[in-house]
């Protein structure tokens, strides 16, 4: 199946729906108009021929005409309501089809993105892609953390546990610069003297917080003096990092 | 007229939605033996047994770590794993108070930790640790790291990855 078919089918559905609604309402109007014209003619004829005061037949005829006129008015209102219903339904159908078209468009774009990712990347492209993605993830993690409400009790309890863990020999090579906990997440800022120590830290930290904060994500930044600064986000059990 | 129009529209919408409806979520399941794991420090090879039946086992008197590379089929997926199940064994006597601890890592192409999840086992005998990460990087990789107290083993790893 090529990508042209979904557009074609959706457009057909949209057109047929709209045309059918319009045709139906037009027919209803034509019918009512024809009947009103006939009634008007018949009324004119009756008036022109024999208008005699007190003629019971005329009274009955006028009364019957008035009734028919009322009936026509009722039918006209009913037709108007039907037209309004059709217009509403047509609008709803149009919105649904436009939404379907947007979904199809998005799917096509996603397919193209995957296709471009499936080709062989150059080293530069790979690095660029990775850098961009890390920046994006870091921004999302920051936003997610800032949106986390504050639970003072849990926050102060966790801050204490974190600071204590940094006395552990396995983390002694890392300098804890800042700790902040909220209701489900904690953020640490840690500095390491070199990249090797930062890598060791990445290995050790998740194990040390397995019980209290089992989910982590980390972002590192190399500083001009060769040291590395890591921002760590940790989440308590049952909570996500994004 | 009205019925015909309704039927026509309904059938067209049904055809469109059936052609473009998404299939149910598929999962790629990969299993690997624990023997795929390696001592974290190469020189510690002598402290481990690595067999088909028992997987990798710490036969030394100290707690030691192993790393296990995990195959990732879907390199475009950004949502991490569905789950990674690690079957481990802990000898309640030899291990003392030290738990078996395993961390699942989702790494970027440059080795940065995109996400990790850690679980521990302090009981005796075999158990399954269910780990999961919900973030992954394009072309990044997954890896498992377990610290094994004396006599503890990693026997089997099951990776459930979204396709």
The low-pLDDT segments of chain A are none
Q: The biggest beta sheet of chain B, please?
A: 6 strands, antiparallel
Number of domains of chain B: 1
How far apart are the termini of chain B?
46 Å
Count of runs of 4 or more consecutive helical residues of chain B: 1
Order of helices and strands of chain A: HHHHEEHEE
CATH fold name of chain B: Jelly Rolls
Low-confidence stretches of chain B: 14-24
H and E string of chain B: HEEEEEEEEEEE
Number of strands of chain A: 4
Number of helices of chain A: 5
Overview of the molecule:
The complex is a heterodimer of chains A (242) and B (163). Chain A has 242 residues and is α+β, with helices and mostly antiparallel strands. Helix content of chain A is 67%, strand content 13%. Chain B is mainly β and 163 residues long. Chain B has one domain (25-162): Jelly Rolls. Chain B is 12% helix and 45% strand. In chain B, the strands form two sheets. In chain B, strands 1, 3, 4, 6, 9 and 11 form a six-stranded antiparallel beta sheet that branches. A five-stranded antiparallel beta sheet of chain B has the order 2-5-10-7-8, with no helix packed on it. The longest helix of chain B is centred in the first third of the chain and has 19 residues, at 2-20. The N and C termini of chain B lie far apart (46 Å). The model of chain B is unreliable at 14-24 (pLDDT under 50). Chains A and B meet through helix 1, helix 2, helix 3, helix 5 and strand 3 of A and helix 1, strand 7 and strand 8 of B. Strand 3 (215-222) of chain A pairs antiparallel with strand 8 of chain B, so a sheet runs across the interface.
Write the SSE topology:
The complex is a heterodimer of chains A (242) and B (163).
Chain A: H1 4-49, H2 56-118, H3 123-147, H4 152-165, E1 175-181, E2 185-192, H5 195-208, E3 215-222, E4 228-235
Helix pairs in contact in A: 1-2
Chain B: H1 2-20, E1 27-33, E2 38-39, E3 48-51, E4 55-58, E5 64-70, E6 83-90, E7 100-107, E8 113-121, E9 125-131, E10 141-148, E11 153-162
Antiparallel strand pairs in B: 1-11, 2-5, 3-4, 4-11, 5-10, 6-9, 6-11, 7-8, 7-10
